[in-house]
Specification:
The chain is an alpha/beta fold. The chain is about 30% helix and about 25% strand. Strands 3-2-1-4-5-6 form a 6-stranded parallel beta sheet, with helices on both faces. Helix 1 (about 10-20) packs across helix 14 (about 350-360), helix 6 (about 125-135) runs parallel beside helix 9 and helix 6 (about 125-135) packs across helix 14 (about 350-360).
Length: about 450
């Protein structure tokens, strides 16, 4: 597949890297020639210098031969003009990143249908959805839904008090009894491991569990965890993300306190939010935060425009006793460092937006995809093709690709956590975890041509 990406920022870079690793033909267009030269050396892609809103530039880049067009510059206007231009060249799918809510409302005269764009994506809205998802499972640092929300992939940090620390997967299998879950990945010091029976769970590992939604409380009890809806949430920063998160949380009946430094913006927020307590002070003022109850907070969400403020306010909150922090960070390459500082979850709006685009554009039998926050590994939901070798075939007899594992099977709206004896059927949806080196092997395994 030939993919043209307009915009060499962090979203464009992330997408270019992912697609080129899969062997796709990627063309990256941007006005910054020095950045393009650097990325061309780093990635196996073609670059074209120029504006994505120029028909001449797009023609030079080979727009007429492209199957997928993605415009992710920092300008809504450039992204939309570029997508509209691409329609003239019969590109099959078009995606644009936008910031203005004017384009995102279903009733807007400039929505996806009116503009002829297959997907309009807002980094702020994508970030809001991710934060709300994480707030629903308070003990997890990563939450991904599959099978229309019936099965979840949950990431947990193994704390010293976890009774499963030190156990091998064979021992855990005996201990879990009737609990329905599967350990599909262990992230140890940033390296993903596809665990087998003799692999052990160690303190400070990040483990990913595939769990049916109804089994989450029982599985968390086994691991000495207890997720619940937060009672008190502090939000540091009253920008778009802070406002949208506050509005969603107050709809759930949660006590929300939003800290914003700008007094004029505080007045606007106080009028727009019905139940949120809007506080006018700097999110780094320790004494005031304590007076307002930061030490009792179940969750602190730092989403100002400053990475420094977000990191320091999260560390300050954790120091005073806040149970969990979610921290917005502009530079995704800093994310692995923040866990060592004690920050529970670090999210990059650009990376969250890029992952949402990846979920939308995956081709063939792949239903959806997610990139794990803790590593370069991915999880896909894939439909089993109608072929004889997949009929009544037990998993243990299929010589499944190295570096990949089936975490769940969805059949006729029923979710199964599989074992080696579990048999496949054409039409099953498989939820598969794999390391970055295994994607081609997984695709080849399910190819039936």
């Amino acid at each position: 597949m030939r993919i043209m990406i307009v915009g060499a920022g962090q979203v464009g870079y992330h997408l270019s890297k992912k697609f080129s690793m899969e062997g796709q033909e990627v063309v990256l267009v941007d006005r910054d020639e020095s950045k393009l030269r650097r990325l061309e050396r780093e990635l196996n892609i073609m670059t074209v210098h120029g504006s994505g809103a120029s028909a001449r530039t797009l023609e030079e880049a080979g727009i007429d031969k492209s199957d997928l067009f993605i415009a992710v510059t920092d300008s809504d206007e450039v992204n939309l003009v570029a997508c509209i231009l691409s329609r003239q060249y019969q590109v099959k799918k078009r995606i644009a990143r936008v910031r203005s809510d004017d384009f995102l409302s279903p009733g807007s005269p400039l929505n996806e249908q009116a503009l002829g764009v297959d997907l309009l994506i807002s980094p702020d809205r994508a970030m809001t959805d991710e934060i709300i998802q994480l707030s629903n499972v308070s003990e997890a640092f990563d939450v991904v839904e599959f099978a229309d929300g019936h099965v979840l992939l949950l990431g947990y940090v193994v704390q010293p008090n976890n009774p499963c620390a030190g156990l091998s997967l064979k021992q855990l299998k005996k201990l879990r009894g009737s609990y329905r879950f599967l350990v599909v990945a262990i992230i140890r010091q940033g390296t993903p491991i596809i665990p087998r029976g003799d692999d052990r769970i160690e303190v400070h590992d990040k483990i990913y569990l595939m769990v049916r939604r109804e089994d989450i409380p029982a599985v968390e009890e086994l691991f000495n965890l207890s997720s619940r809806k937060p009672d008190l949430v502090f939000i540091i920063g009253g920008g778009n993300i802070g406002y949208m998160v506050a509005r969603r949380l107050e709809e759930k009946g949660i006590d929300v306190r939003l800290v914003e430094e700008d007094p004029d913006h505080c007045e606007i927020l106080a009028k727009q939010l019905e139940h949120t307590l809007v506080l006018n002070f700097d999110g780094l003022e320790s004494n005031v935060l304590l007076e307002e109850g930061i030490d009792r907070a179940d969750l602190v969400i730092s989403v100002t425009d400053s990475d420094t403020t977000n990191i320091l306010s999260s560390l300050l909150a954790k120091h005073h006793g806040a149970k969990k922090c979610i921290t917005k960070i502009t530079r995704p390459d800093f994310i692995p460092l923040l866990g060592k500082l004690g920050i529970d979850v670090a999210l990059s709006p650009r990376q969250v937006a890029a992952d949402m685009i990846l979920r939308f554009v995956r081709r063939g039998a792949i239903v959806s995809v997610a990139t794990l926050l803790a590593s370069d590994a991915e999880v896909i939901e894939l439909k089993v093709p109608d072929h004889q070798r997949f009929r009544d075939a037990p998993l243990k007899a299929l010589a499944f690709p190295h570096g990949a594992i089936v975490g769940a099977i969805v059949r006729d709206s029923q979710v199964f956590i599989p074992s080696g004896e579990t048999t496949l059927q054409p039409g099953d949806n498989l939820i598969i975890f794999f390391t970055k080196d295994a994607i081609h092997h997984v695709e080849s395994f399910f190819a039936v041509d």
